[in-house]
User: What shape does this take?
Amino acid sequence: MSSGLTKIDRGNITSPKGFTAGSTFVGLKTYAEDKLDLGILMSVSPCSVAGFYTLNKLKSHSVTLDQERTMNGRAQALVVNSGIANACVGHQGYIDASDITKKVSEHLGLANDDVLICSTGLIGVELPVSLIKTGIDRIVQKEDGGHDLARAIITTDTRTKEIGFNFRHEEKIITVGGISKGSGMIHPNMATMLAFITTDAAISPDLLKTMANKSVDQSFNMITIDGDTSTNDTVLVFANGESGCPEILDGSPEQALLQESLDQVCVFLAKEIVRDGEGANKLIEVNVEGASSREEARSGAITVASSTLVKTAIHGNDPNWGRIVAALGRSKCEIIEEKIALYINDICIMESGIPTPFPKDSVVAIMSGEEVVIRLNLNLGSESATAWGCNLSEEYVTFNSAYTT
Amino acid sequence: MSSGLTKIDRGNITSPKGFTAGSTFVGLKTYAEDKLDLGILMSVSPCSVAGFYTLNKLKSHSVTLDQERTMNGRAQALVVNSGIANACVGHQGYIDASDITKKVSEHLGLANDDVLICSTGLIGVELPVSLIKTGIDRIVQKEDGGHDLARAIITTDTRTKEIGFNFRHEEKIITVGGISKGSGMIHPNMATMLAFITTDAAISPDLLKTMANKSVDQSFNMITIDGDTSTNDTVLVFANGESGCPEILDGSPEQALLQESLDQVCVFLAKEIVRDGEGANKLIEVNVEGASSREEARSGAITVASSTLVKTAIHGNDPNWGRIVAALGRSKCEIIEEKIALYINDICIMESGIPTPFPKDSVVAIMSGEEVVIRLNLNLGSESATAWGCNLSEEYVTFNSAYTT
Assistant: This one.
């Protein structure tokens, strides 16, 4: 928060000017405590939009439709349902997604192509389109509807994930807000990650895409819960220009502040997903420093954070350096064994590739906290990267091996 | 065993003619019940040899030395210690590995360069070289020493892994035997896989390398326990020609039989490693058929077999098709959703990309056995591949999160 960013109290996706949200329930999420399962995000004016989608070749038709509609960098509303993923249902899924967005466009008085759709939940089940259409008729857009929308998008998450920041720009205020949902693993689905971010900055679709890509790459693309990726993973970023500030231009000081806001929002929402991972109670942060290239640092960090053996060791508060450096060794990261230094929560565990005597009891005690920070210095170059993961617990196995079909 | 191969009763690495083994203990394996921890495999005559090593950039110095010494395709003996991995100890590890092989070469009266070394166990700990040298003096080579050598190489494996086959070739008999060790995960080590295979066939180093590579690629390279790879993984194949049969030539009928023997030995030893995985009690076989290319089929099979969500579902006898096809979707395998068919233990679960009604109770009952076979037909081409993995259990997590440092 150094550079003039202010964290907003109870900030979320409707904190930026000109965004409203409305939610209701239609009975899609029978397994969850919170019954809200259908919501709409809308902007008073057309937005620049940037979309980032799952790389899984098995995709929800809701994802396919959004990929087509965000090609032009423009959208004005988003409908989200939780409970059913609209995946593995054949071509009907595409027809249903189109139908629902058409209904929303009529309900809101917008062009059909300006409405996007996201779905999360069970796969192999068709969306009950009539039920959803009836639900849409009941939805009322509210200026403070963001919190309810955050509730409407979660599945087995134990809490909502919401954040907002703002900064001053020529006597006006630019706000960035967002919500996300994560790691519910329900019948035959896996953790679907959804994140929606809004800002009232004025910015071209191209520059927004470049900036959002930078934020997503160091946040949502650097988290791991169990290595599986979903049919529905989506990040959407909307900018409507309603702050009244002049357009953000490439290379300007405002651009730096907007970038920092997007970074902070994305990193917060991504880390919240990991913290709330199934059966997880520890956040693992892995910093790889001194790498020859950024790509290598990223590969090293995410490989260590994903390692089953590292995740179980940290579950047991075990400063198991061997598993950490062995995971590093199988990543794409070039290493020279004799140069590696390893720190756990700032205590040196390994130097010059050889374990150092360290106060084991203290390290174990420190590791029993909610956050374990692994720092690997490769001493080869100046590039670095950070990834986040969580411990692997017996509860994860129990939960995920329970009959779900 | 269709084609004239015979499985040998209690066959192992000393079943082929001209191979002897001897074992002893020097106190490296305090954590294991079986105390044998040092052994030597020797051939009466120089062998063609093929070596396959871990791709981890963090390597045991025992691996480094073998990589150098098998470059010429020739070796005559192998010394193995279990208990200490000779990894993460700096350059001293290389000096120690060289020293120990030198001692063995003197003990056996062989050229130093013809002796290989493998180590498995704790990393970050130096080998007690004097103790090991004293142990070597006590080792006596025996014609039936294979079973004890199989004991001497295991760490926390619950049993030895041994196999042998033979076939007739012009009135003579050619034998192939092997031993392996797997998935003990001990302080700060991960599952080291070692496999040693011998044959009394006469064969050039180049042809042996080609054939062994084919076998290793469809066996040891297609198994997964927890996705982590070790600093010490090694497969060594020795051929000494002592059967008295003429040299095996490329394209001959004998070559096909030798290939099948190597395949059978490697697949058996690889599957045994998976069956004996930490906390695992189910073998998962994943067959991907109808792929456009062999590489894609391999990627699909190994990705499904490695998926944490698939492994936990199978632990719970859950025919969770969604997790299976989603794992397939994130592999390198090209898919057309509408063409995918999925079978679990031969029961059709999904057809044309859409789940079919299946007798759930029957499938759950069948899945509670010791072997679960997942078959995915992509209906795109004619290539196929098989991978093997194991269920992920609460016991795995408990075992691997226990303090080990």
User: Anything to note?
Assistant: The two ends of chain A are 46 Å apart (CA to CA). The longest strand of chain A covers residues 38-53. Residues 6-275 of chain A form a domain with the L-amino peptidase D-ALA esterase/amidase fold (CATH 3.60.70.12).
